[in-house]
């Protein structure tokens, strides 16, 4: 799983290399209070229970790291903000590089916009992007890349690169990415899920 943050909104992506299940979602700061955003992140993590989470440095505070590592018992790997630069450097010149200081101080300047455009093109060229309603199971191919939140593009990019590095090969069987829209399903609170697991383990021991 990967978690990224851009201007207060979050993108999450989760991948099972064996089954080729690749899902992603976004959490919009405009729709949630700050506390609710992090609770939704915990709930998404608890929903998939990944073995490892890839996070750019500075995205999570100490309290969030403690919750994920100690309560959910999941390992976190931290990466630099510039970790995914070379994904677009393969196809473009160095002017597309995103600089950490520009991102934090100047917002989306022209350089950042160029980078994000190139990164989006890289992802939508590599994968079929499909929006999925988990209630109706209806699937819709996303034809306009502008309809994809940039937080999702970043989350997918981090996971794409990390998976390619750790597997040491291009995973050609990974073709589809499913966008799961907010509020189209019900998830257990992460604490409740953990309590249920503990209760079940206690029952199994009897």
Largest sheet: 6 strands, mixed
Number of helices: 7
Can you give the helix content as a percent range? 40-55%
- Which residues sit in consecutive blocks of at least 5 with pLDDT less than 50? 93-105, 184-189, 198-203
Largest sheet strand order = 1-2-3-8-6-7
Strand content: 15-25%
Could you give the order of the helices and strands? EEEHEHEHHHEEHEH
> Strand tally, please?
8
> Overall pLDDT, averaged?
81
The first-to-last residue Cα distance is 34 Å
Give the class from helix and strand content and strand pairing: alpha/beta
Shape: globular
From the alpha-carbon coordinates, what is the Rg to the nearest angstrom?
17 Å
Task: Describe the structure in your own words.
- The protein has 206 residues and is of the alpha/beta class.
- The chain has helices spanning 34-48, 62-71, 85-89, 100-106, 110-126, 150-167, 190-205; strands at residues 2-6, 9-16, 21-27, 52-56, 75-79, 128-132, 139-141, 176-180.
- The protein has a six-stranded mixed beta sheet with strand order 1-2-3-8-6-7, with helices on both faces. Strands 4-5 form a two-stranded parallel sheet.
- Strand 6 and strand 7 (139-141) form a beta hairpin.
- The radius of gyration is 17 Å and the shape is globular.
- It starts with a strand and ends with a helix.
- 26% of the residues are buried.
- Mean pLDDT is 81; it is low at 93-105, 184-189 and 198-203.
């Amino acid at each position: 799983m990967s978690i990224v943050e851009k201007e207060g909104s979050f993108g999450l992506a989760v991948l099972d290399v064996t089954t080729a299940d690749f899902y992603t979602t976004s959490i919009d700061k405009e729709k949630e209070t700050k506390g609710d955003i992090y609770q939704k992140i915990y709930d998404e993590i608890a929903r998939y229970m990944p073995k490892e989470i890839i996070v750019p440095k500075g995205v999570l505070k100490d309290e969030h790291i403690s919750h994920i590592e100690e309560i959910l018992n999941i390992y976190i790997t931290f990466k630099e903000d510039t970790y995914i630069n070379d994904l677009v450097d393969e196809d473009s010149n160095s002017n597309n590089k995103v600089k950490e200081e520009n991102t934090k101080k100047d917002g989306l300047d022209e350089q950042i916009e160029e980078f994000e455009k190139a990164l989006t093109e890289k992802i939508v060229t590599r994968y079929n992007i499909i929006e999925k309603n988990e209630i109706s199971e209806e699937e819709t191919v996303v034809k306009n890349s502008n309809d994809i939140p940039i937080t999702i593009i970043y989350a997918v990019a981090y996971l794409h690169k990390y998976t390619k590095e750790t597997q040491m090969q291009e995973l050609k069987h990974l073709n589809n990415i499913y966008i799961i829209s907010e509020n189209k399903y019900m998830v257990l609170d992460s604490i409740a899920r953990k309590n249920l697991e503990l209760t079940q383990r206690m029952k199994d021991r009897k």
